[in-house]
Amino acid sequence: MPPSPRRPAARGPAKSAIRQLSWRAPEPAPIVLVAGPEEVCAERAIAGLRDYLKAEDPSLEVSDIRADDYASGTLLGMASPSLFGEPRLVRVAGVEKCSDAFLTEALAYLENTQEGATIVLRHTGASVRGKKLLEAIRGGSGGGVEIAVPAIKRDSDRFDFAAGEFKAAGKRIAPSALRTLVSAFADDLTELAAACQQLISDVPGDIGDQVVQRYYGGRVETTAFAVADTAIAGRYGEALITLRHALASGADPVPLVAAIASKLRTMARVVGTREPSSALATRLGMKDWQVDRAKRDLVGWTESALATAIQAAARADAEVKGASRDPVFAVERLVTVIATRAPYAS
Question: How far is CA 169 from CA 24, 26, 198, 204, 258, in A?
């Protein structure tokens, strides 16, 4: 199957002179910089480049190099044309830990790239090592492009990621089912990506709530957000049962508290506002559904009770990260404060 026509990409920020590409739509170039910490997206981008080049020429030669364990001459040797002139894809990992030898040869290679070779440089951003090389690439040396893979941490980012998985596959999923799926894998993007792909592969038609519950219902019931939802709704007994079920299933108190605190902060941003959800979402940088959910969560809450809950979440966050010897008790106390909407009575 021939590759689709190459599409023009939006230019990146002013500090970069090269084209910025989406990790979902990678394109080959003499140098492709894949920069950022999100490994799932980086792997997809690099695999997409390989598939793109394979579609253009099945004789593609694929090679791998470690920039931190580098033997002099390897980069040029793998990039140089062979006797029959097959195209080459050279994937370089660990650029954020690159050796001096690799850095010197990579900078020299930018001045004399090899025809038919695509060099993919993976830099996680975990260090400033290789900064000179990145600056040279972003300045236009070597005729490169950049694929940014920033960390996906916010709920809205995970929601967009999952929605993009189904959109890319031409698959429809109900918004409520998508929210449930994202909540079930809120602490692991790799597992969320795998869950999306499993549903895309297994389910022939549209994906609704019942399908997600059938596949991942057990996990959904014990997620941090399920604990948060029942506590915020004031269902004290159910919240404690859900929390203990989650802990018994191996849930860590740190992400449990983080999920609860995240929902409380969203509620605090929305409380007291009368703007339409769409306008408020735009102003706050949120999704419409997040605003609607926060407004529903606020039913029965006073500003004083919300302030008390937020203070309790801050205390619990410190305690589960080392300020207390009993992180489980810290989470249980937080759930009690939220579900009863009153200070903890010791």
Answer: 11, 16, 12, 12, 32
Same domain, 179 and 197: yes
pLDDT at 272: 86
- Sign of the CA dihedral running 156, 167, 28, 51: positive
Q: At what angle do helices 288-297 and 253-270 cross, to 10 degrees?
A: 90
What pLDDT score was predicted for residue 1? Answer: 43
How many domains does the chain fold into?
A: 3
Instruction: Enter the pTM of the model.
Output: 0.64
Residue 15 pLDDT exceeds 70: no
Give me the CATH number covering residue 119. Answer: 3.40.50.300
Could you list the residue range(s) of the whole structural domain that residue 303 is in?
223-346
Specify the long-range contacts of residues 37-44, CB closer than 8 Å, at least 24 apart: 37/124, 37/125, 37/126, 37/149, 37/150, 37/151, 38/149, 38/150, 38/151, 38/152, 38/189, 39/124, 39/149, 39/190, 40/152, 40/189, 40/190, 40/193, 41/149, 41/152, 42/122, 42/124, 42/147, 42/149
Q: Say if residue 110's pLDDT is above 90.
A: yes
- Edge to edge, the sheet with strand 144-148 lists 19-21, 144-148, 31-35, 117-123, 88-93, 61-66
Q: What is the mean pLDDT of residues 307-334?
A: 93
Span 197-250, pLDDT tens digits:
999 999 999 999 889 888 887 665 556 777 888 899 999 998 998 888 888 777
